[in-house]
Write a structure and sequence with these properties.
Low-confidence stretches: none
Number of helices: 6
Strand order of the largest sheet: 5-2-1-6-7-11-10
Largest sheet: 7 strands, mixed
Helix content: 25-40%
Radius of gyration: 15 Å
């Protein structure tokens, strides 16, 4: 598995599932991971989603990228999930890729990952991007961290992650195939 998208009750469905869809279209092995002990997760708009696995039963040794979708209260639950925050800290220390969209970059900010980095988030969460240079662009990658602003930037975010895991040409091909910015 190359990418893991973490799902918490109250996650923003479009932000989580767009990433899964785009990465899988690009041929990136992508797994959805529930942060609870049950695979069924309910999004912020009451859409039930069955995750591929639960966090405690997943081996992350081969993962290259961890992705946090936003949404409320999902973002809060992600930040409160100790197994997830410990995994994020491990990835950060090892320089492995981490990404978050909407309110979820606040989790990275709370963990101290954004100090001296460029980052973006959903408006109103900027104060939680501790130490970051906060921009107002759809998506930004600084080093091994990618952040994005919200549901309306989910495709751009997913294509940026495709570029980081595959290459720019693959991201462009997927973008063209879904009639995105053609």
């Amino acid at each position: 598995m190359r990418a893991c998208v973490f799902l918490a009750d109250g996650f923003e469905e479009i932000e989580g599932l767009t990433v899964v869809d785009i990465l899988r279209r690009a041929g990136v092995e992508t797994r959805t991971v529930s942060i609870t002990e049950r695979r069924l997760v309910t999004g912020s708009h009451q859409i039930p989603v069955t995750a591929d696995s639960c966090i405690k039963e997943t081996d992350f040794s081969e993962a290259e990228l961890l992705v946090l979708p936003g949404g409320m209260p999902g973002t809060r639950y992600l930040g409160e999930c100790r197994p997830l925050t410990e995994l994020l800290l491990q990835f950060f220390r090892e320089g492995r890729k981490v990404a978050a969209i909407c309110a979820a970059p606040s989790v990275l900010g709370d963990l101290g990952f954004l100090k001296g980095k460029k980052a973006v988030c959903y408006p109103g969460f900027e104060s939680r991007l501790t130490g970051a240079e906060v921009l107002a662009v759809p998506v930004v990658t600084d080093g091994h961290i990618t952040t994005s602003r919200g549901m309306g930037t989910a495709i751009a975010f997913a294509l940026e992650l495709t570029k980081r895991l595959k290459d720019e040409e693959t991201a462009k091909q997927v973008g063209r195939s879904i009639i995105y910015n053609v």
